Amino acid sequence: MRVKQSPHVINATFTSSIPGSSNSMSFYFKAAKSEKDPQRIANFLIDDEFLNTFNLEVLEGEDLPISGREDTIGYAFINEAFVKFFDMKDPVGSFIDGNNRNKVIKVVKDFNVKSLHHKMEPVIMLYSSNWFRHIAVKVSGSNISAALDHLAEEYTNYYTGYPFDYAFLDDDIAKQYETEQKLSTLFKFFSAIAILIAGLGLVGLASYMVNQRTKEIGIRKVLGSSVGQLVTLFSKHFIHLLVVSILISFPIAWYLMNEWLASFAYRISITGGFFIYSTVIVLITLTITVGFQILKAALVNPVETLRCE
């Protein structure tokens, strides 16, 4: 393949579909000795370089290449999910029925052909020498523009009159999570607004409380209370409010997060670390807004406070 002659191209392969994108094909297949009915399964027509180009891990099977074989039987690579679904005991060397009869020569480790919203599905890769629709090229990240120039030149040498069209696999995968990215941006924006409003409310409430108890602060200082004791005393009210808010908000947050994560077949677990992180943020906000107001009042000379009163 001429495209691999560039030092900026690591590997390339012909394929009917691209794993991880939305253009995969599917047909009905079944393991020849399985009692299960044929199932509609994602499939790819591939060449010798498909596994190496996509770094698919081979668990068992025969060595490549297979392109020089003289027999006329079809050859197939399957993934672990395919083996489990049809309960195949010795998959390598067995046969799969579909449009044609194909012999399994490799079992590869499961890989995602859809987004993480979906469970790992059975996949079959059929070795072929034609009927390809795509060339998947793994390029070096050191000079992508040079690699694209080389690919465009080779393309126009063979396909004159047709535009050179390409896409990056990571961009196609990122599009599968556009909704989550937009939700993340919205949550960050409204969280910042909520923290700002809450901070302003705490400042107002702290200022009102301090103004109402200015005389008490002065008397307590005259009687020997330290600044630390005064800050601790007047902070208790806000700590109680914080505890109540945590008891109300954390169960609701856990429920909403769990419902959202339920839409993913593969998901993280909701641990206490998320809530500890949230509590730390709230405590910092509380300390900055309320603590400053109380500390400022506690540092005032009690003589001036009592004289004012």
Distance between the termini: 91 Å
Q: Major beta sheet, specifics?
A: 6 strands, mixed, barrel
The H/E string reads: EEEHEEHEEEEHHHHHHH
Q: Using the CA coordinates, give the radius of gyration.
A: 33 Å
Proportion of beta-strand residues = 15-25%
Question: Please, how many helices?
Answer: 9
Q: Uncertain runs with pLDDT below 50, 5 residues or more?
A: none
Q: What's the pLDDT, averaged over the residues?
A: 83
User: How many β-strands, per DSSP?
Assistant: 9
Summarize the structure.
By secondary structure, the chain is an alpha+beta fold. It contains 9 helices and 9 strands.
Description of the structure:
The structure is a single chain. With 309 residues, this protein is of the alpha+beta class. Helices cover 47% and strands 17% of the residues. The protein contains nine helices and nine strands. It has helices at residues 50-53, 80-85, 144-158, 169-175, 178-212, 214-222, 227-261, 272-298, 302-308, and strands at 9-15, 25-31, 39-46, 58-61, 74-79, 95-97, 101-108, 123-127, 134-139. A six-stranded mixed barrel has the order 2-3-8-5-7-6. A two-stranded antiparallel ribbon has the order 1-9. The longest helix is centred in the middle third of the chain and has 35 residues, at 178-212. The mean pLDDT is 83.
